[in-house]
Amino acid sequence: MDIHEFKIENPEDVGQRIDKLLPEYNSEWSRTQIQDWIKASLVKVNDQVIKSNYKTKINDHIVVTEKETVEADIQPENLNLDIYYEDNDVAIVYKPKGMVVHPSAGHYTGTLVNGLMYQMKDLSGINGEIRPGIVHRIDKDTSGLLMVAKNDVAHRSLVDQLVNKTVTRKYVALVHGNIPHDYGTVDAPIGRNKNDRQSMDVVDDGKEAVTHFNVLEHFNKYTLIECQLETGRTHQIRVHMKYIGYPLVGDPKYGPKKTLDIGGQALHAGIIGFEHPVTHEYIEKSTALPDDFEQLLSELRRSDK
User: Fold this and answer.
1) Partners of 146 in the beta sheet?
2) What is the DSSP track for 20-62?
3) Which pLDDT tens digit goes with each residue over 186-234?
4) Which of 39, 226, 109, 154 is nearest to 31 (CA)?
5) d(CA 122, CA 238)
6) Residues 289/293/297/302 CA torsion (nearest 10 deg)
7) Choosing from 139, 141, 201, 251, which is the catalytic residue?
8) Has 204 been annotated as catalytic?
């Protein structure tokens, strides 16, 4: 189960039925789901159990304990996933662009989890039936490498490393604009956008978020950069680069309307490194940019001549 917390700060949200408002905060929730969770006392306001017709007040503190709902059995599928490393405890797997990491509403087949279940005998169970082995995620339209835990001991170790900021996570991104300096750090808290609950934003009361970046290549109107995550907030690189004025190319949520169309944001998780939970050996793997990303860069190089 996942815990979600919200605070009613926008005047437009005051006086609304809670079962109607919460699906606006999370697009994966339905009103029926929220009503079921309220009946099961999984939704509380100011530490109190409420009813579905509760109307929100300013500064209400809402806590939702998200109950996993599985509409169908999650079945193993032969998706021919590329495994970059595997032993009895952990694995490193490549997630292609366009693939969802784990099953959710509307996505019960073709996910990374379906493929993992087919190719691996054991996966950790800490995150429940629909997220076996999943320690962290990358967005659907982001390609690249992910750590996978094959048992609960390994899972806890990898989570601890993420919390302690010792995991190496490096991404390659193409952004709009020409960044004038060779490297930089964005240290700005990220939380839900108060005007668009399906988006994240830099907000004063958000969670700590730190992204380091360095320039790899300049183009006339774009810059290729490498980003290293110190924290792992939802959409962190996409939000941070927009915040400093260099949004990702192709980003449908945070980028400009006029952008290069490559079917999603130009973002690739190219390097992952961590301490093995049992042997304590440092393991690091890297992967090349996908073909469509490389093709885009080649086209930019030709057009800039």
Assistant:
1) 93
2) HHHHHH-TT--HHHHHHHHHTT-EEETTEE--TT-B--TT-EE
3) 999 998 887 877 789 999 988 899 999 999 999 999 999 999 999 999 9
4) 39
5) 33
6) 120
7) 139
8) no
